[in-house]
Amino acid sequence: MTSTTEPTEPLSVEQLSATTLLRFATAGSVDDGKSTLVGRLLHDSKSILTDQLEAVERASAGRGQDTPDLALLTDGLRAEREQGITIDVAYRYFATARRRFILADTPGHVQYTRNMVTGASTADLAVVLVDARNGVIEQTRRHAAVAALLRVPHVVLAVNKMDLVEYKESVFAAIAEEFTAYASELGVPEITAIPISALAGDNVVDASANMDWYGGPTVLEHLETVPVSHDLAHCHARLPVQYVIRPQTAEHPDYRGYAGQIAAGTFRVGESITVLPSGRTTKVAGIDLLGKPVDIAWTPQSVTLLLEDDIDVSRGDLLVPSKDAPPTTQDVEATVCHVADEPLTVGHRVLLKHGTRTVKAIVKDIPSRLTLDDLSLHPHPGRLVANDIGRVKIRTAEPLPLDAYADSRRTGAFILIDPADGTTLTAGMVGESFAAPQPVKDESDDDGWDF
Fold it and tell me: Other C-beta atoms within 10 Å of 190: how many?
């Protein structure tokens, strides 16, 4: 298979290993051109293959279109193609000489808020599309609010369809000013506005000849150069234990290692660490990486830690530096997005999965539900239904070591699971957010709780 444009030398394994990885998500209202933007980005960056383009050309011709509809590169479901909308989260992987990318193309409809939360939860950057003819609308504000709630560090405002407003600088400037003011109030740390035409390709991969008044980067240039300043290697070091390795062979009769993927931070041989939730302390005696001993390891490497002392460590435990251990608690307060069709109610018995640990829990209270239209709070709604975002209080059967989501998106997140069938019910973010309500007096601390 060959590329859709002039062939280029493929990146070698060494070149790919030397590049950084950027996870980003896209969001936009219906007909803002989000899927077309993604298709244009993939096409013009030479990240699709000839057979993929031929399939899009056939589908476009079948719909009576003279040119390929690049939106079909991501809208893969039949319902998406028929309705011309995005329903599911579509992940795309591509790379340039400067960076590797994982793209999550997320839906824009209100009823698919949960899908956007899923796609943006691990994103380093969010691209929010706006139709230049319509400006900042209610759905745009929703997308900015979700990005702020999920602590996405970088937001790109892509003002699309500039060709339909005669590429006027004044139109772009007004939209950029309004969105930047709103997103900044929500706490979004960095906002970059770029005027584009996804259909024509202006400022997506190649600079536009129609907007000489704009001197900033194209979308791809920004994606390639935006700093990943929140580098997890410099966060609180955390290693959720996934597996205990105990071969008991003639070659390794006494080997006992604790394997897992480093969720954040860096571990070093000789470092004092604490095992949570037990609180036992020891030191790192060795680190095995890909079968070889190393002195230091960092996120997101998968490693095996060897400890100086024979202490009880099992799957679900969290290894952390003793000087930087998070508190353990059975009372969890969090902002959540409910993703299941079944409502989440006060008194709901659930399983809470945090890292590699899963414990029983009960929903004690739902202090508020967030109205994304105007960011108002509906107090004590009693339940959350699909796509609702709100505050919850949860009591767990066992203590959990929890970071605030604001400090660590990896170890400050959890999910709630239906114990009956294993369905994911809710995605949670520990601690405060801009949606946090005023303190609510809890009158039922000892009102029949099991634990």
Answer: 15
Burial class (CB in 10 A: 0-12, 13-18, 19+), 293: exposed
CA distance readout (Å), 332 to 29, 117, 148, 392: 34, 20, 21, 8
Please report, for the chain, how many H helices and E strands are present, in that order: 8, 25
Residue 22 half-sphere exposure, CB side, CA atoms within 13 Å?
A: 28
By C-alpha distance, which of 92, 128, 183 is closest to 434?
183
Q: Both tokens of residue 54?
A: 């031929």
Per-residue pLDDT of 4-50, as tens digits, reads 344 345 555 444 445 688 999 998 887 788 878 888 888 788 776 55
Query: In this structure, what DSSP letter does residue 231 have?
Result: -
Give the tokens for residue 381.
């709604």
Structure tokens at 198: 């996804």
Q: Which of 333, 323, 305 is nearest to 396 (CA)?
A: 333
C-alpha separations of 360 from 356, 400, 445 in Å: 14, 11, 18
Question: Can you give the pTM of this predicted structure?
Answer: 0.79
Q: CA-to-CA distance for 343 and 24, rounded, in angstroms?
A: 30
DSSP 136: S
Length of the chain: 451
Q: What is the rounded distance in angstroms from the CA atom of residue 425 to the CA atom of residue 130? A: 31
Task: Tell me which residue has tokens 């011709």.
Answer: 61
pLDDT digits (tens, 9 = 90+) for 245-268: 998 777 777 899 999 999 989 999
Q: Crossing angle, helix 113-120 and helix 138-149, to 10 degrees? A: 40
